[in-house]
Amino acid sequence: MIYKLPIYVPGIAVAISVLAASIGAFLVLKRKSLMLALVAFCLSAVAGGFIAPMLAMDRVVLDDQKLEQTTGFWFAPTVKGFRFADVSSVTIGTARDRKKREYEIWIVRLKDGQTREIDPGDLWEMNGQDIARRLGDKGIEVRR
Predict the structure, then answer these.
(1) Under a CB-based contact definition with an 8 Å cutoff, are residues 123 and 112 in contact?
(2) How far apart are CA 123 and CA 121, in angstroms?
(3) What is the pTM of this model?
(4) Cβ(68)–Cβ(87) under 8 Å?
(5) What is the pLDDT of residues 66-112, one digit of tens each?
(6) Nearest alpha carbon to residue 13 among 64, 59, 48
């Protein structure tokens, strides 16, 4: 199973990029504020060059051997997850960051006794119930 964001999510970033580039071009052609045109072109570059590809490439893969999430910028992706053969159980809990905000954490207990904490990304969290059910179907105990 591959979980991805709906196509309209990166599409919104592309639309913002096109709109910002159009505004920038309009400002340059009409000889208006070059500073505002530069801001518009920078917004276009960020939305189209960083945010849209990041959202389009974000995915969670749950297959017969592993649960793996690929997220982050296209030029430096972050991959996190675990292989089922190494896992004895998973506990879904919460933790607090330095600002005392609560966030979800998956505590993976390995067969060798070690534990790993995984901070799931938004896409993983959005599909967390389905992922937990599918892990249970594969024989991995998931506790909440």
Answers:
(1) no
(2) 6
(3) 0.80
(4) no
(5) 999 999 888 899 999 999 999 999 999 998 888 989 999 999 999 99
(6) 48
Closest CA to 3 of 138, 128, 136: 128
What pLDDT is attached to residue 39? Answer: 95
Q: What is residue 136's predicted lDDT score, i.e. its pLDDT?
A: 92
* pLDDT at position 11 over 90: yes
Structure tokens at 101: 């905000």
CA 95 distance to own-chain centroid:
19
Residue 25 CA to residue 23 CA, distance in Å, equals 5
Pull the structure tokens for residue 83.
């292989």
Q: Which residue has the tokens 């506990």?
A: 91
The letter for the amino acid at 27 is L
Specify the amino acid at residue 80: K
Angstrom distance (rounded) from CA 97 to CA 103 = 8
pLDDT value of residue 60: 96
Contact 140, 90 (CB under 8 A): yes
108: Cβ contacts below 8 Å, ≥ 6 apart: 82, 87, 89, 90, 115, 116, 117, 118
